[in-house]
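Form 12-C: Joint structure prediction
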Amino acid sequence: MAVEVQLPAQLREFVDGQTVIEGTGVTVGEVLRDIVGRYPALEEGLGLKGNDIPKYVNIYLDDEDIRYLDKFETSVSNGSQVVIMPAVAGG
Amino acid sequence: MRVESITELIGNTPLVGIHALSPKPSVKIYAKLDGQNPTGSVKDRVAWNMMRKAEEDGILRSGDTFLEPTSGNTGIALAMLASLRGYHMKAVLPDNVSPERRQLLEMFGAEVIPSPGEEGSNGAVRMAQRLVAKHGYVFLNQYENAANVDAHYSGTGPEIWKDCPEITGFVAGLGTGGTLTGVGRYLKERNGRIKVIAAEPPTGELVQGLRSLDDGYIPPIFDRDVLDSKVVVRPAPSVAWSRRLLRECGIFAGLSSGAALSAAIRYAERLDEGVLVVFFPDGGWKYLSTGAWTGDAAEAEERLSQIIYF
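Section 2 - Result
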């Protein structure tokens, strides 16, 4: 499954300035691991450790936060879009 | 209705059916119009509760100066109450909020301290923490103050439950997390089957000034576990649903209300039946300058992508 992953400004330095990268896999976790395999520095930039979603990172699959789906095990489909954003407050 | 002070008009906001916008007749949708509070937003509840608690605890005394980081609404509410109660207020405000938010803060007597817009509310929080540490201002801090959640747990939540005990889902925007945490907890204690859904704006391009993802911010009062789902809603659907609200329901609500409604519609499409309450935190007045209702939608969406409207 080929999936587009959109990265925030804070992560672009780890991927040669790209804003969107394509990854492959059947879950969000696999897609991210595929990309991290090609850009190893991204792992630290994202703060990936084990199976936890980093605290200050929101990862959306087709606009839904994967924390409330199946986390990294959330299944993707062809043409899905993954978006990574920093957690930001309002008020 | 006759009252002796504007503060008596805080809360007890109406719940209005907007079923015409539901994707199916078996799903009813009600809007909680918190823009009908005295300064025009839900934050009157939070500001009033935080201020009374601080007064009770002896943290805030007449003549004191307090400082608050805000993207607008909390600051506006606090500024109004500060002028009533004899306090001086300083508001740390990101410089990319709508100009109306800044105007209202100044109208109610707050001193505005701009923070870098590209750091979003996160930058305002950090600047406020630095200024408080340096100058010793009283710091109510809506992001850490339990009185924020309590305003919703003891006010907004019970109001919704009283007016709509058949509720199956509650949808609101995520800012401090106070509304979602307080209302969500209250409703789930009454009926554990009620789902709580959050809508949030896209933040990626708006906070380019944050150096790394570790500069992200989760308000300590926000209980992530109270949510069943969280969706990001972009400017285009936020504008589109705000316009439909105006034209089809006669409701002039702010753009984060449009975002919450968009999330509610998305959720409603998956249900066979249900009764949803969508929370509208403010009216549209403070966003007229974005052209969201009056101009070209694409231009309004572009403007929204540059400003904080949650």
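Section 3 - Comments
The interface with chain B takes residues 6, 8-11, 45-47, 54-58, 60, 63-65, 67-68, 83-91 of chain A (CB under 8 Å). Chain A has a mean pLDDT of 93.
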